[in-house]
Amino acid sequence: MKKGTAVVGFILGLLLLSGGPMSHGALQVGFYRGKCGFADVEAIVGGVVSAQFFTDPSLLASLIRLHFHDCFVNGCDGSILLDGPDSEKTASPNQSVRGYEIIDQAKDAVEKICPGVVSCADLIAIAARDAVFLSGGGIYRVQTGRRDGLVSSADIANVTLPGPSITVPQAIAAFADKGLTAVDMVLLLGAHSVGVAHCSFLSERIHNFKGSGKPDPSMDQFTVNTLRSRCPINAIENTVNLDQNPFSPLVLDNSYYQNILLRRGVLQIDQELGMNRFTRPIIANLANSVDFPARFGAAMVRLGAVGVLTGTQGEIRSSCRVVNKAVKKDKSG
């Protein structure tokens, strides 16, 4: 492991030792402390994630998205990691999801030291926390104790995951169905201050909004011109930064909300948050806040508690890509 990677991993492990116990239901901070001897599970994962940071910083946004897409379907149970012809990975909203190989690496690393103890669902949550930290979004104390689910369905993912053209009332209802508030929703969408969007998701908005032959009038003209230069009509596979602040496209900060107030939201749902009478005050507050990192971290903790399996529910997978029965069958030949 590179020296810089080891240092970041150590820092992440050290930070979570501060403060007293905190729990959300059956989840708790430091769940694995003492369960793997003297090994620090979270520092091991931090080393894997930070190694990716030094080679490809854009993958950090992918880990945050991976956590969201996992939790929003069957709950935070690692079901998005399962392979299969009809698994969540194959669902349309998940076609551009990345980060699976990082979770595989983290799983391999912890299994060598502590086999059969650390769940894949927890690895996603820990990796997302580390990605937030490495993206400049501050540190929060991740809760662990999840177990892995046994079911992964593309059909469920297709109807559950909210798309970029969803309306604000629909988005509020979708988050409420997961026990999350409108404020949680606006905070979590702040993750759009990092990462990219494929041009296919905004082509209609910048070229032919609602069949008008014109761009969405709610978007700033300079932003329209910028996005059109990157996303000509037929270039649907190109990507653009979700954060149109040229100085911080890889930094998780409150510039997402500032962009919305300037009518520079890239996705339609982003800009509509700034026009809706219920969410605009939240956007304005966060655009001018100094405590966004702490509030975002708290929202991530609440997201990470959605629909979790604990205790004897589910299993602890040997491989994040298959359920244990499949692993045993493969080994028996």
UniProtKB/TrEMBL annotation:
Q: Which reaction does it catalyse?
A: 2 a phenolic donor + H2O2 = 2 a phenolic radical donor + 2 H2O
Q: Where is the Plant heme peroxidase family profile domain?
A: 26-324
PROSITE patterns from the entry?
A: PEROXIDASE_1, PEROXIDASE_4
Disulfide connectivity for this sequence is 36-114, 71-76, 120-320, 199-231
Query: What keywords are annotated for this sequence in UniProt?
Result: Calcium, Disulfide bond, Glycoprotein, Heme, Hydrogen peroxide, Iron, Metal-binding, Oxidoreductase, Peroxidase, Secreted, Signal
Q: Which GO terms describe its molecular function?
A: heme binding; lactoperoxidase activity; metal ion binding
Look up and give the organism this protein is from.
Answer: Linum tenue
Q: What is this protein called?
A: Peroxidase
| Main subcellular location | secreted
A Pfam match: peroxidase
Q: How is the cofactor bound?
A: Binds 2 calcium ions per subunit.
Location in the cell: Secreted
GO cellular component terms given for this protein: extracellular region
Q: Which GO terms describe its biological process?
A: hydrogen peroxide catabolic process; response to oxidative stress
Signal peptide location: 1-25
